[in-house]
Amino acid sequence: MEKRKNDWFGWIKALLIAVAVAYIVRTFFFIPIIVDGPSMLPTLKDRDQMIVNKFIYRVKEPERFDVVVFHASDKKDFIKRVIGLPGEHVSVEDNTLFIDQQPVEEPFLKEQKANMKPYQILTEDFTLEQLPGGYSQIPDGYVLVLGDNRGNSVDSRSIGLISMDQIVGRTSTIYWPIERMQVIGK
């Protein structure tokens, strides 16, 4: 009888430890997210399931072209790509991204640009001053984000700059569906 009681205690203890470890990992390190909508096509597809690294931005700052998840509202998280960093001026003219008046290649848009007709617009022209907030440069603690599907994305062009406090973490790993399993690049 005593052995049986010790076996149950051992199982309960193991289960509690497993639950505690899962809680700590999910709260502080990694969470799953499901892509909702077409705003990151062709990089990410609707219903792709990904892992979000919540810890990364506690030890380093976001980098240009990181794919991040952020709180767009109390009830909705968005997934977009970091384009502009603190202290920078961002604009787009004739489908070309400019950071501090210097053209910057966007390798993740290469295929889309190659398939465009000469008169097509991938990204409507804009300057940072025209976005909500009217900034002349991105303030400290903020980033400018855009979806890869520029014609169908609610991003900094309409909702303004994103505070670092809104960012949940960086994501780069698609784990489901199996045929799309990959680490996405910049």
UniProtKB/TrEMBL annotation:
Superkingdom of origin organism: Bacteria
Record InterPro entries:
LexA/Signal_pep-like_sf, Pept_S26A_signal_pept_1, Pept_S26A_signal_pept_1_CS, Pept_S26A_signal_pept_1_Lys-AS, Peptidase_S26
Q: Please state every residue range assigned to the domain named Peptidase S26.
A: 9-176
**Catalytic residues of the enzyme:** S39, K80
Q: Where in the cell is it found?
A: Cell membrane; Membrane
Give the transmembrane region(s): 12-35
Q: Which family does it belong to?
A: Belongs to the peptidase S26 family.
Its cellular-component GO annotations read:
plasma membrane
Q: Which reaction does it catalyse?
A: Cleavage of hydrophobic, N-terminal signal or leader sequences from secreted and periplasmic proteins
Main localisation: membrane
Q: Which CDD domains match?
A: S26_SPase_I (cd06530)
Kindly give the membrane topology term recorded for this protein.
Answer: Single-pass type II membrane protein
- The Enzyme Commission number assigned here is 3.4.21.89
Name the PROSITE patterns on file.
SPASE_I_2, SPASE_I_3
Q: Which UniProt keywords apply?
A: Hydrolase, Membrane, Protease, Transmembrane, Transmembrane helix
Query: What protein name does the entry list?
Result: Signal peptidase I
Q: Does the keyword Hydrolase apply?
A: yes
Tell me the NCBIfam families matching this sequence.
sigpep_I_bact
Is Transmembrane given among the entry's keywords? yes
Q: Name one GO biological process term.
A: signal peptide processing
GO molecular function terms listed in the Swiss-Prot or TrEMBL record: serine-type endopeptidase activity; signal peptidase activity
